[in-house]
Amino acid sequence: MEETWASGSLELLKHADSHIQLDTAFDSRIAFISIDNSVETSIRTFLSLPVKISGINFQRKEVEEVGNSFPKMVDLLFSKARSKLAGLDDGDIEHYHRIRNQLYHNGTGLGVDRRYLDAYRQIAAVLLNNLFGVKVVTKGSEATLENLILQFNEVETLVRKAFEDSGVDTGHTFKWEMAMREGILEMEDISQLTELRMIRNAQVHSTAENIDKKRIELGVEIAETLLKKLKG
């Protein structure tokens, strides 16, 4: 999709990056709020696009009923455009949006843990890529939460594509059994996918002091193994 549609979100993300580099408590707050604004702008813009551009038929009444409610926008996006949101979870976005609200309303003197900041920045980047096809991030090889988020997104995207190419319904109750029958995945792959998803979700929703470096390292290792297989 043309970068024009994503221009507002991109500018907000670039603004966030400029503050991240300054590395002060004040700048971390501004960066986090700007990232959240980028996420909201991406969602709001996508909901407003014509179906011939977005590929998703959002009814005008649905969008109007959502209004300016961030949670309702997220709910509508995930209920109608799940196929474009591989590797993303509505709970992640709502989790970080709540942190943003705390910073916005009670943030004087508060900073943001850098791991939270980097993680939400990656979620915003993944959202831009998934919705508009705009790549604004390069995946590194370090075992960090932000790279785990990116690798999980790539794994989920490749799995969904493999399912679709083989005619497996991603929403089917027995999709994993169907995937094994089609030779897409083996039981070990499914176990690793489950473990990867559990690690990713637990770390994204953990408090800053409870982020587990070893679990993140394991998640990155699992993701790399799965990516190698999925890419053939």
Could you write a compact summary of the structure shown?
The chain is an all-alpha fold and about 230 residues long.
Low-confidence stretches: none
- How many structural units, i.e. domains? 2
Residues in helices, as a percent range: 55-70%
Number of strands: 0
Q: Tell me what portion of residues adopts beta-strand conformation.
A: under 5%
Query: What gyration radius follows from the Cα positions, in whole Å?
Result: 18 Å
Average pLDDT number: 88
Alpha plus pi helix count: 11
Q: So what's the overall shape?
A: globular
Q: Which H/E pattern describes the elements?
A: HHHHHHHHHHH
What structural class do helix, strand and pairing data support? Answer: mainly alpha
For the report, how would you describe the main beta sheet? none
Distance, first to last CA: 27 Å
Give the key terms.
about 230 residues; mainly alpha; 2 domains; about 0% strand
What does it look like?
With 232 residues, the protein is mainly α. It has 2 domains: 1-137; 141-232, no CATH class. 69% of the residues lie in helices and 0% in strands. It has helices at residues 7-20, 25-48, 51-54, 60-66, 70-80, 90-106, 114-132, 145-165, 175-181, 187-204, 213-230. Helix 1 runs antiparallel to helix 2, helix 7 (114-132) runs parallel beside helix 8 and helix 8 (145-165) runs parallel beside helix 11. The protein is globular, with a radius of gyration of 18 Å. The mean pLDDT is 88.
